[in-house]
Design goal:
Oligomer: homotetramer
Order of helices and strands of chain A: EHEHEHEHEHEHEHEEEHEH
Helix content of chain A: 25-40%
Strand order of the largest sheet of chain A: 3-2-1-4-5-6-11
Shape of chain A: globular
Largest interface: A-B, 36 and 36 residues
CATH architecture of the largest domain in chain A: 3-Layer(aba) Sandwich
Largest sheet of chain A: 7 strands, parallel
CATH class of the largest domain in chain A: Alpha Beta
Distance between the termini of chain A: 30 Å
């Protein structure tokens, strides 16, 4: 039987994630919970133009509490792509019902992180600010190469569409993980480039390049599903993406 | 004190390796042993135009036995970039003297591999047909990604200079390691390209590319030194490159 | 005042083109003419969710003839992304009304090409099977480099999503233009890659790579607009993309 | 019969150029003229380890004047990879003898440029600070694309070995030619990268990348030979690389 998913947040990332979950055979999208009343009471499959027997009902927080939604439609996972403070609304009830939480929220305050830790005593809590498999893999194996060759020269190139302001958050995260200065991040802003990250490892007589190219936001959906698959048999606790990748190294 | 190295083989790869060892602070090049009598009794530093206090004497197998060379100049490591059958000439004496063996020979017969195993009961024996750090890293982390996402689409591009015949051995090794058919290896032959390998992992909404670019044969030298550094404290046994990389994963 | 455009064909390419024309300041989308009765009498801006004062009315060929549409809403350009035989329906009336024709149809029969030539005596007719600026630029400057260095080694890499069958038409066109065998086309099929073409020119001591990456079908729209801009002051005749690029070389 | 070449300057670039000329069937290396007395009176083929019937005699300016060298061994071309002021030593005599001059000198003063112009009334004078075919092609077709699409977003990436200081001169030249600010030049310094220049043209829905990768300095030699081939039938005058590429556009 499919594992049931409730999705909190239905912005651009939320919609892409709903799209992916609906097409996946292991998980069903039971509901979406969002702040806006737009699309309220419609179903996601119908909204996205899918044939699907998954309910995917859209609820608005202005009409119904998350507690009631969960009571009406119990789920195995809550996937949260809303804003940081939402965790306080559903965290306790999710924990009490042993619903596993997968959060792709970009940033949490210290207080919110403390709360994540607290509820992770009772249920599985996973948080990854960039939830794509590819970027997390890149991060992981980049750190590994740096460990093997601590003296290697590292440069980062990140390419995005014209309007994007500031350094890419992912590039900053890579730089921090590799302990390189942010002046080693080279930002390209041109046309409609969706998103590309390249880590260059310069050795005296060879060069290694690790490249991640984004095609669309649906990659978040696949990341969330990968997380869900790898959290099914996990004990209560707070996890990040690296925790899910590490076991694949064992022989 | 520097660890002492004897080098067997002084072809193009051997020369490049000698070049790198001479410039390294942890290892000294004590002698070179080769079949040809060319350059016999000259010193490698002088031949390569270096100032160096490392002897780097060049011996020819037509004038002196390897046993005598080892007796005159005991070493900690033998680095072997000669041909496959040479192992029978120096393997036993190296093992008896606890000299660690680092072989970059491309191919050994089954009989030779059996001999490697036998002497590895007594000393450290390391064999890697492609001894560059970058290629072995690529191989390692490619297998890791395949394990994480067994269903991912994989394609390999290998680029080399115009004249190179057949598929690149490294590309074949990558294909085998990832269990992909050789028709997924795309061979580019153009101009003077030194050597480039790219593994493409195609996900539905993102692409990961792992690229290795060779600059020169000296990369073999750095690989040999990396092996030597990581073999110093190892027990007797037969090792390959993956065995050296694996410990870097432990936290 | 904006130049008026009528669009024939409203499949995936047609929709992308409509999208781009609607956002352009120099051209207005006056109508769409399509075979299907889907969306009939609705307006494109409303369908695509735009605020726009451009009419963009959708007509179906099952309800109204193209002659009537043109009579009701005279236009300066007809952009044709329908199928090859459609040219017979609108070619004569377009020519009689001096409406410039921009066709992005993939393939025409000899008979249809003869017809294009015939009407090009009376009006401007432009045909490009791949109407993106980038691909045509690549083609142009690749031929130029081949002319400068006829002996250079050339290889082509084309990358597309998993399901795409056969060689990419663009890659074949590049190969033909450069007079290289089709075994120099290396096809990568992986995940969701939208479309990438790379032409590698291998020189003995240097490599030149020309790369085109598609982000979305909207690129056809920009190509059509580029064509329209460069056809405004042209005399009657049959033009292709190269004819539009060539004048930019003059000093 | 082979065209005769005299080479002025025998540093790293000069040696690479000599290497290429010696292997070329259309041109012979008759002599090298250099400041240093190192290698004086030896022959280049013997020094580089070639079998060749081309003289390639090495003269030092401390022992013999360039006038005498030219008198003893008249040549068709002088290729100059020495320093900027050398032009005053041989310019007049070259012009008087209708010897064509190919200079790859990085920088000339205004006074020296005036002198180049003056002697170009009498003979063919060619000057290109970066004399590789690939870089000049890149420059040429980049300017062409900018002309076609003046509003396109442009970014430049230049990659070189760790130690290289300052922006690459070629990258600056590209930026100037395309009229983009130098903050669009992204400099990567890592390991032993020989030299890579990438110009990214970002369109809303597509990206064009033009890449030049250096393999070795011998590329200068091929550039010099390309220049010589294209100057054979030219009238007196001052030429740059673009002047040689332009005729290839004519149909």
């Amino acid at each position: 039987m499919k594992k049931k998913v409730g999705l909190i947040g239905f912005g651009r990332a939320g919609k892409a994630i709903a799209n992916v979950i609906l097409q996946n055979q292991e998980f069903s999208l039971d509901w979406v919970y969002r702040r806006s009343t737009l699309l309220e009471k419609r179903s996601v499959p119908e909204f996205l133009g899918f044939e699907s027997d998954e309910p995917g009902l859209i609820y608005s927080s202005s009409s119904i509490s998350i507690d009631e939604v969960i009571k009406k439609h119990p789920v195995d996972f809550i996937v949260d792509f809303s804003s940081h403070e939402t965790i306080f609304n559903y965290g306790a009830i999710a924990a009490n019902n042993k619903i596993k939480i997968i959060s792709g929220v970009s940033h949490y305050s210290n207080e919110e992180i403390d709360f994540l830790k607290q509820i992770s005593n009772t249920t599985v809590v996973f948080w990854s600010p960039n939830i794509t498999l590819g970027v997390n893999y890149l991060l992981f194996v980049s750190k590994f190469l740096k460990k093997i060759a601590p003296w290697v020269d590292i440069e980062i190139i990140e390419e995005h569409f014209k309007g994007k302001e500031g350094l890419s958050g992912t590039a900053i995260k890579i730089a921090n993980a590799l302990n390189v200065e942010s002046d080693k991040i080279n930002s390209i802003r041109a046309g409609g480039i969706v998103g590309k990250h390249e880590v260059i490892f310069g050795f005296p007589y060879q060069t290694v390049r690790l490249i991640h190219e984004s095609i669309s936001r649906e990659a978040f959906g696949n990341g969330a599903i990968f997380a869900a698959q790898n959290l099914i048999s996990k004990e209560s606790g707070l996890y990040n993406f690296e925790d899910l990748l590490l076991p694949y190294f064992s022989h």
